[in-house]
Structure formats: C-alpha cells, structure tokens
Write a structure and sequence with these properties.
Layout: H1 13-28, H2 35-46, H3 67-71, H4 96-99, E1 107-113, H5 116-127, H6 134-144, H7 146-150, E2 154-157, H8 162-168, H9 172-178, E3 188-190, H10 202-209, E4 213-215, E5 229-237, H11 241-252, E6 257-265
Parallel strand pairs: 1-6, 2-5, 5-6
Antiparallel strand pairs: 3-4
The structure holds zinc ion (2 copies).
The site of one zinc ion has 8 residues, from helix 4.
C-alpha cells in the first residue's frame, strides 16, 4: 500500500497537488491546445511516485526515486580490476579476463551493476524522459570515477545517431558528461545507425559497432588532440564493444590515454 507522508511544512502532499491542479486549470482554461500539457503536468504533481518501488514520494518536486531505492542500487565498490573496473574477489591489480587482453580503454569504471534498481533508474532516465535522474547518477559516477577524472584532460560523450537523438530529445551521455566537472569535447559522430547493444547477443555486439564511429570533421588532423588523456562517458557498458570502437578512433586521432566512465556496467559472470 502506498506510504503517505507529509511535506516539511506539515501540509499533506495530496493537498499541495490538489491546489496545484486547480491553479493549472485556471492558467490553461483559455488555452484548450495546452490542456494535454496541463494534464501531464498535473498527473506528475498529483501522483509523484518513485519509479522503482511505486511509493508516494515525500516531496512533490524531488527526483523521482525515493531515498530507500537510491540506497539499494547495486554499487560497485573496491576491490575492482584496475583495467575493466569489474568487482574482483581479491585486491589484485587486474582480473583474469584482462590479463591476456589487448586494451583500447586504459581504465574503465562504472558506478554500479546494470541490474535491479539501477537498471530501472537508467531505463526511466533514457526511455521515459526522467531527466531529474541525470544529476544523482552523475554524482555517483564522480565518486567511483575520481581516479579517472583526476587524470583526464577532457570528457568525450558517446554520441547517439542523429535520428535517435532527435526522437529521444537528448543524449544521456552528453548530459551526464556536462555534470562531471571537466571540459566536454564532442569529438565523435556515429557514421551509421546501430542496433542497441543491450538487445544483441554478445557475439554480435562487436560487429554491430565496428566502424560505426568517426571523428567529427572539425577535429580531423587537429593537433590539439595529440597526447591528450580523454575519458569516454556513457550510461551503460555491456561488453565494452562500443567504448572500444570509440577508443580506437580517439587513439588514432592522437590521444595518449583513453578511459571510460559509465553509470552502470554488466558485470562478467566470471568476475561476479
Ligand atoms: Zn522507491
Ligand atoms: Zn578486468
């Protein structure tokens, strides 16, 4: 059953929401075309529930996840592999999967595992336009990615294909990068539309993103990139194929090191 609480002022949330609905009705009374927008806004005010557990939120205008659900996201905490960022049982330098691998990405970190509450939160941010979730996710990325951010000259968001960005209205990677406190360079573009990595079997993911990224024209043969330490920013790492493909482009352009920082990652079963 929904938990109903009071705001700090002592006024029950439904009373505030009801008053807000009445104000909105007055404002939009003479603008029938805007009624739909008024209804959507009123619905958000009348039923401010947590997108994870569905409980009524304590504050009408708070980000749309309750405190309990934020506390229960599956964070990745040390010890982690210094290369891929997967959690490991013992504090070794790198995990078994990384020992014999060639690495395009010099160091990767993610705030949490792409499962449970964190998966729901990222879906809500990306597919249901809950942009208020971007800031708290960026805060958690800052915490887990301190080592990377301290050694990085600039952040590079993983780009969306222009049609996908147009339909979504924003690029979540760029929005996250904007809040991480370092210069953001939009160096990359997608050369073609690719299917979402999440919906593909592991074997097909590398082929799906092969040659799918290129440097934007104005950065071609730009000496400013020589020797730069860059960090790719994305919301989710699945197999790392997308980040590898982007990293190859950045290294070919002259970057000395390429890191990656994401809000969540799919943890390899061998390391879980
Ligand atoms: Zn909740
Ligand atoms: Zn590793």
């Amino acid at each position: 059953m929904a938990r109903i609480t009071r705001c700090n002022s002592g006024i029950p949330p439904w009373h505030v929401a009801f008053s807000a609905r009445r104000c909105l009705d007055r404002v939009f009374r003479f603008l029938p075309a805007s009624q739909k927008a008024a209804d959507a806004l009123a619905a958000a005010l009348l039923t401010p529930t947590c997108v994870v557990c569905g409980r009524l939120l304590e504050q009408i205008l708070s980000p749309c996840v309750c405190e309990t659900c934020w506390c229960n996201i599956p964070l990745i905490t040390p010890p982690v592999c210094d290369r891929c960022g997967d959690p490991i049982a013992r504090p070794e330098e790198v995990c078994r999967a990384c020992i014999d691998r060639d690495h395009t990405i010099d160091r990767a970190r993610s705030a949490g595992r792409y499962e449970g509450n964190l998966r729901i939160i990222i879906h809500a941010m990306k597919y249901h336009e809950r942009r208020s979730l971007i800031s708290p996710l960026a805060e958690r990325m800052k915490t887990c990615g301190r080592k990377i951010l301290n050694e990085t000259d600039a952040l590079v968001p993983v780009p969306l294909h222009q049609w996908r960005q147009l339909s979504r209205g924003f690029n979540q990677s760029a929005e996250l990068a904007r809040l991480l406190g370092l210069p953001v360079l939009h160096l990359l573009r997608r050369t073609r539309h690719t299917r979402s990595q999440i919906e593909l079997p592991a074997a097909e993911r590398r082929a799906n993103v092969q040659n799918a990224f290129a440097l934007r024209r104005r950065w071609l043969r730009n000496p400013q990139l020589l020797g730069k330490r860059l960090a790719l920013i994305d919301d989710v790492t699945t197999t790392g194929a997308t980040l590898d493909a982007c990293g190859r482009v950045l290294k070919a352009a002259g970057a000395s090191q390429v890191f990656s920082l994401t809000a969540a990652r799919v943890v390899r079963r061998s390391n879980a």
